[in-house]
Amino acid sequence: MCGRFALRSSPEEIRRLFGYGEQPNFPPRYNIAPTQAVPVIFAEHGVRRFRLMRWGLIPSWVKDPKQFSLLINARLESVNEKPSFRGAMKYRRCIVPADGFYEWRREGKDKRPYFVRERNEKTFAFAALWETWTRDGGEIDTVAIVTTSANGTLAPIHDRMPVMVPPELFDAWLDCDRVDARQAAALVGRAPNDVFDAYEISARVNSVKNDSPDNLAPAA
Questions:
Q1: CB of 15 within 8 A of CB of 23?
Q2: 103 part of the active site
Q3: pTM
Q4: What CATH number does the domain containing 151 carry?
Q5: Domain count, the chain
Q6: Beta carbons within 10 angstroms of residue 199's beta carbon
């Protein structure tokens, strides 16, 4: 799964990498958590757009979000069958930029946190889906990150990992007009074993109140 991530790159660097026209300004984040606003890139009439969205997808047909489970992840294996995701997979695919994410390794009753990053320490893109939930004249843009089974690097820590969209597939993943949902699902999958590395960090990250570079320091 993916339940926390970090985005340290500057707004200018992210805008240059993902090629959208907006010029948002936002601080570096080291402990982005569900229900918080996250940066999202999507395509509209062939043009890439940027928008902040709430992490935790709410399908358009939900009447009361308080009575509905928080959908922070969507499983790639079933994303085209699940009622909560199949509409978004067909019409509203997007990407979420990140510089790394956190996973917890269970050891007995304990969970030990790890930071996972690209070996070249570059910004990358999570595959994601978005929905606009509307009731009583109000709108909330919401998003879920797509996950798949872990590769050989991540499997010793957790059995799931986020799906990454490489830059050469940005256009195809975002093009919901010409690339249908099943074609899009076939384009992406688990990252190769040599893309990421992971190292143990302190338990600081367990609290969402801790949002600083100290979260990334290797465990003593």
A1: yes
A2: yes
A3: 0.96
A4: 3.90.1680.10
A5: 1
A6: 12
